[in-house]
Structures are given as structure tokens and as C-alpha cells.
Write a structure and sequence with these properties.
This protein has one domain (about 5-360): Beta-lactamase (3-Layer(aba) Sandwich). The chain has helices at about 10-20, 65-80, 90, 105-110, 120-125, 130-140, 155-170, 175-185, 220-225, 240-245, 260-265, 340-360, and strands at about 25-35, 35-50, 50, 60, 190, 235, 295, 310-315, 320-325, 330-335. Helix 1 (about 10-20) runs antiparallel to helix 12 (about 340-360). The strands form two sheets. The protein has a seven-stranded antiparallel beta sheet, sandwiched between helices. The two termini are about 25 Å apart. Helices cover about 35% and strands about 15% of the residues. The chain is an alpha+beta fold. It contains twelve helices and ten strands.
């Protein structure tokens, strides 16, 4: 399916067709909003065996899920329940020892806490259908890779801990918080964390995911979907995904966040909590990161977008990107996992962004 797009966007649909025909991508879809108007919505290939990708398909969003978790936490900050400088140990007393007590909520959301990416035996944990509680408990015992605030390692575990912090601080369930503070206010009726059983037949199958072929397969099993993991548990239609992206533009149907909160989500938050608080100078390159959002800034990728742009990718084969200078929102989804093609994965996402941006800006 393709919207009534002009020939201007033909290179984008052609690119997705080539990916499905020649690159092992079974199914893919892209939506583009420019200056507040939908200019392209296109689906191609199979979302799952014997299931054509279309507007009803629900796509596992992998790490784009972090944006929904971050938006929920920012809503709690607006309500005075938390602050970015909240030390996790004050909410979760087990978070202490070896500098863990210095970890703040800001550091969890910007991947500067010192926590590892996730358990090195995550595939085994998924295969065993380990409860989320036990997966997150790893944060209490796992040695920090560096002193909080001095370096940056992308961390699913950090976002899982942030989700637990929010739930514990408010004496609420994480799933309820995301639904009540983000999904329902945004009218995202085809976004789930976790999905109910009745929509299971609409969910795309992610090829190459952790624990594939087992009852614990990430994204593909009832167990994994019901984890509602704060770092990778969201599932949504393409339309809902790009609709969520619009809430971070002037074209949102209504205001989800205050202007101050929105600005914080898309501004660099990787500095120290207070002047001079860092225990050591940064050890490595700390990339500009907002609250949930990666900020383009000086990064080499994505390529044809403004330095002020922001977004997030997901290992299931998806990306949401917002360029406020070019006035564009791009949502791309597919079902070929990073594990199957580590060298070509991010290049594929860059190619989609590049061709969209070049098509839109060509005279």
C-alpha cells in the first residue's frame, strides 16, 4: 500500500522494494510527515509468514520503546514525583556499593550510569523465560563499567531500572504508568506494552531475534511480549509510531508535555547533575543524548539530517527520526534483526533516512 504520493517519493518506495527482494528483509514499511502533512505511507513484503505487511500490522519497536518509557518518566517529573537528579538508591535502597548509590535518573536515561548493556547471558535468560524482576535485579549486583557520569555505554538494563524506579516511587505498575501517562493521552490505540492476546495475529515476526525458535524468543513469544520491558517492549502500528513522533513537533494534536519538558527531552542532558559533581573527567566520548532521544549533533549517523534532529533506532529493524529544521518526521519499520547483519544494519537505516531526505529536498 502506498499513499497518493508524488513521483518525488518514488525513490523511497523503490528502495524498500529492493530491500525486500535482495537484502533478506521480509517486510518493511515507511511513513513520512513533512510540514505536518503525511506525504508517504508505504508497506511491502511479509510482516510474518503468510501475513502481508499493511496498516494493521503491529511492529515490535525494540529500543524505540525507550522513548515511551522516557516520556512517561518526564510526565512524572512534571508532576513533581521525580527529578532528573534523583539518586536511584533513594528509591531503590539495594542500589548501593561500588558507586551505585551515585547513579541518577538522568544518567539512566542518557546511558551514562555505568551499567552494562544487559546481562551477557540474556539469550539464556529469555530461553528460560526469566521474570523481568530477576532480569532487572542484575543491576544491583553487576559491577559498574565506569564511575557514573564519566563515560557512556548504551544500556537496556539502565532503562529497565529507570522503569522500576518510576513504578516504585509512585507505588504504581510500570505498564499502567505508560498507558495512563503516554498512550491514552496521545490516543495511541494501536500501541501496546504489552499486547493483549487478541492482537497476537497482527504482530510482525522478527527474524534473528534473541532466543529465536524457543518459547522465550524476544519479540516473538508470549513470554517476551508480556515482559513489557521498558527498553524493548513496545509494539505499534506504523501509523501510531509516526503519530507518537508528531507529539515532539508543533503539529501534535494536543500537548502531551509542557514546552519546558519537551525541550529537555530533545536537548543534551549528558552533563553532570551539579557543577563539579563528576568524580573524574570523562574517560571516553559521551554522545549528546536527551531524555530518551539520541541527538544527531556531531554524530556521523543518521547522515542527511540536521544537527538539531533527534530520534531512536530499534534492533528489530526500525527507526523514528524527527528533523525540526527540515520539518520532517520519518518512521521506518521492518523485521530483520540486527543479529542477522551487524555490519549492514545501521547502514540500512541510514539509507532510508538519506533517500527520504534527499527526495523531499530535491527541486
Amino acid at each position: 500500500m502506498t499513499t497518493a504520493a508524488s513521483e518525488q517519493m518514488r525513490p523511497v518506495t523503490d528502495l524498500l522494494g529492493r530491500m525486500v527482494r535482495t537484502e533478506g528483509v521480509l517486510g518493511a514499511a515507511v511513513a513520512v510527515v513533512a510540514r505536518g502533512q503525511l506525504v508517504l505511507e508505504h508497506y511491502t513484503g511479509l510482516a510474518a509468514p503468510r501475513m502481508t505487511a499493511d496498516s494493521d500490522t503491529l511492529w515490535p519497536l525494540a529500543s524505540i520503546s525507550k522513548l515511551y518509557t522516557a516520556a512517561m518518566i518526564v510526565k512524572l517529573i512534571e508532576q513533581g514525583e521525580l527529578t532528573l537528579s534523583t539518586r536511584i538508591e533513594t528509591v531503590l535502597p539495594r542500589m548501593k556499593g561500588e558507586s551505585r548509590e551515585k547513579v541518577t535518573l538522568r544518567q539512566l536515561l542518557t546511558h551514562t550510569s555505568g551499567l552494562i548493556y544487559e546481562s551477557p547471558v540474556m539469550p539464556e535468560l529469555m530461553t528460560k523465560q526469566t521474570p523481568l524482576r530477576e532480569i532487572v535485579d542484575d543491576a544491583y549486583d553487576r559491577q559498574l563499567v565506569y564511575a557514573p557520569g564519566t563515560d557512556q555505554i548504551y544500556s537496556d538494563l539502565g532503562y529497565a531500572l529507570a522503569g522500576r524506579t518510576a513504578a516504585t516511587a509512585t507505588q504504581s505498575d510500570f505498564v499502567d504508568l505508560v498507558r495512563d501517562l503516554v498512550l491514552e493521552p496521545c490516543g495511541l490505540t494501536n500501541t501496546y506494552m504489552p499486547p493483549p492476546a487478541e492482537v497476537a495475529s497482527r504482530i510482525a515476526y522478527v527474524n534473528g531475534a534473541f532466543a529465536e525458535g524457543t518459547p522465550g524468543a524476544m519479540y516473538n513469544s508470549d513470554y517476551a511480549r508480556n515482559l513489557a520491558h521498558p527498553a524493548f517492549g513496545t509494539i505499534a502500528t506504523l501509523r501510531d509510531l509516526i503519530g507518537f513522533g508528531l507529539y515532539f513537533t508543533p503539529y501534535s494534536p494536543h500537548q502531551l508535555l509542557s514546552a519546558a519538558a519537551l525541550r529537555s527531552m530533545v536537548s543534551d542532558q549528558t552533563g553532570g547533575d551539579f557543577p563539579g559533581e563528576r568524580v573524574a573527567k570523562p574517560q571516553g566520548v559521551i554522545h549528546p543524548w536527551g531524555l530518551g532521544f539520541m541527538i544527531k549533533a556531531r554524530a556521523g549517523t543518521p547522515e542527511f539530517v540536521s544537527p538539531e534532529s533527534f530520534g531512536h533506532a530499534g534492533a528489530s529493524g526500525c527507526i523514528l527520526w524527527i528533523d525540526p529544521i527540515q520539518d520532517v518526521v520519518i518512521a521506518f519499520v521492518s523485521n530483520r534483526h540486527y543479529n542477522l547483519d551487524p555490519d549492514g544494519f545501521f547502514t540500512r537505516l541510514d539509507r532510508v533516512i538519506n533517500v527520504v531526505m534527499s527526495s523531499l529536498t530535491r527541486r
